[in-house]
Amino acid sequence: MATANRLAWLKSGLLWRTFFMLAFLITVSMVTWVASFRIVERGPRAQQIAAQIISIVTITRAALTHSAPDLRSELLFDLASNEGIRIYPLEDSDKIDPPPDNSLMPDLEREVRARLGNQTRFSSKVNDIDGFWISFKIDSDEYWLMLDSERVERTSGIQWLQWASVALVLSLLGAMFISTLINQPLSRLTAATRAVAKGLQPEPLPETGPTEIEEANRSFNQMVNDLQRIESDRAIILAGISHDLRTPLARMLLEVEMANLSDDARNGMQSDLAQMDGIIGQFLHYAKPTDTSSFEIINLSELIDNVVQAALRQTDIRIHTSITPDLHVSGNETELRRVLNNLIENSRRYGKKEGDECAQVDISCHVRQDKVVVNIVDHGPGVPDSEIDRLLRPFTRLDVARGQANGSGLGLAIVSRIIKQHGGKLRVSNREGGGLAAQIDMQLRS
After folding, report:
1. Which residues make up the CATH 3.30.565.10 domain(s) of the chain?
2. For residues 403 and 415, what is the distance between their CA atoms, to the nearest angstrom?
């Protein structure tokens, strides 16, 4: 499970996917380059070192051969102090260690023996003295010539590792910069898209940069402007329609009052006209944009209590509450009151058990981490699981599942729209044992 979560995390971030891809390619390229370089430079490096050793041995042997016997000790002192070259007699009793074990020695031994003879011996330590030891002859006498190991050793693996680490760190920093540069426009686009999904107006995206990013940002800005214009046009159209419809509705109500009708006929017509007026009001509520500048800190616990007390004035609903006091959120009180009223009214209409005259509704409000969670649950028949998503769409009514009732199908759509504009989440699900549960999550404010 933990591995799956890590893989999901990597897949979820395009920035990290790009970074790790670049890091992998850089690492593979560096390892391949270092390995190739060391293989290719081994031969020339061995030849170069072998030529240096051969020259040192040849010159030293010639100097000792042609120097006066009384001056040899002074010559040996000068070679040791000035050139780091020490000469020792080769004895049969010498304790000799094998030559250095590295990839360079086989080529080095072959090159030196080709010039100085196959009898030439090599050692990394003679009589417990470290160095690079090589034997040579003067007439019938054998000698050791010792050089400092650093003069013939290749760059150590630790040095290669240090250099590679520095280069890798710099490369990874460059990869992070490139990844950020590539993904920054996508991050801005994602943030702007989320703002639009919440019903907010995002800042226009910069229409600069590479052609593809410029075109995408320009198209997105145009889309946002078109959506805003459509939203505004819809609000104006619905407001005009509602105004035009409510005027004749008012006249019809007056005519019904003045007409010579029976009480049943008058009550029926008044009920129908009131229903039409309520539907028009729902249209307006759905189309009305939420002004975030009007948001203020609201005591949600008190608001729920007030709404519940008002709802209990109706005789066909029973409400059981469990509310944590003094929970505050940021929002528009009128809009949040409409949300609570719509959900409770929805439960009152559709949440009755078969044979019951009253709808039983459970309302709770508590804190979960940094969220205020409100649950409104009825005990009615619920809805098919496959149809739950449709409940939040405008003009959708599932009368077969929830019983026949009058309405426009905008109640839950209005709730979903308002909660989204408040930065919250609405979840609708079937209650275990029957009934519909609506859960609202909103940010807790102090």
Report:
1. 292-443
2. 20
| Tokens 């920054």 -> residue | 184
395 or 271, higher pLDDT: 271
Backbone angles phi, psi at 357, to 5 degrees: -90, -20
Strands 129-138 and 317-323: unpaired
**Letter for the amino acid at 227?**
L
Q: Can you list the alpha helix ranges (DSSP code H) found in 79-140?
A: 105-116
Report the alpha-carbon distance of residue 86 to residue 78 in Å, rounded.
10
Say which CATH architecture domain 198-289 belongs to: Orthogonal Bundle (1.10)
Question: Which fold is adopted by the domain 38-155?
Answer: Beta-Lactamase (3.30.450)
Most distant CA atoms of the chain, gap in Å? 152
Residue 368 has pLDDT above 70, yes or no: yes
Average pLDDT over residues 57-80: 80
Relative to beta strand 359-368, strand 86-89 is: unpaired
Numbered ranges of CATH 3.30.450.300 in the chain: 38-155
* Matching residue, tokens 């229409």: 207
**Contact present, 224 and 202 (Cβ < 8 Å):** yes
Say yes or no to pLDDT of 154 above 70. no
Q: For residues 83 and 430, what is the distance between their CA atoms, to the nearest angstrom?
A: 92
> What CATH homologous superfamily does 292-443 map to?
Histidine kinase-like ATPase, C-terminal domain (3.30.565.10)
The pLDDT score that the predictor gives to residue 361 is: 92
Q: What's phi and psi for 56, nearest 5 deg?
A: -60, -45
pLDDT at 397: 55
- Per-residue model confidence as pLDDT tens digits over 5-58: 444 444 446 567 777 777 788 778 777 776 776 665 666 777 888 888 888 888
Distance of CA 351 to the CA centre of its chain: 41
326: left (phi over 0), alpha (psi -120 to 50) or beta: left
Residue 297 CA to residue 135 CA, distance in Å, equals 93
| 386/201 Cα distance (integer angstroms) | 33
Distance CA 296, CA 279 (A): 29
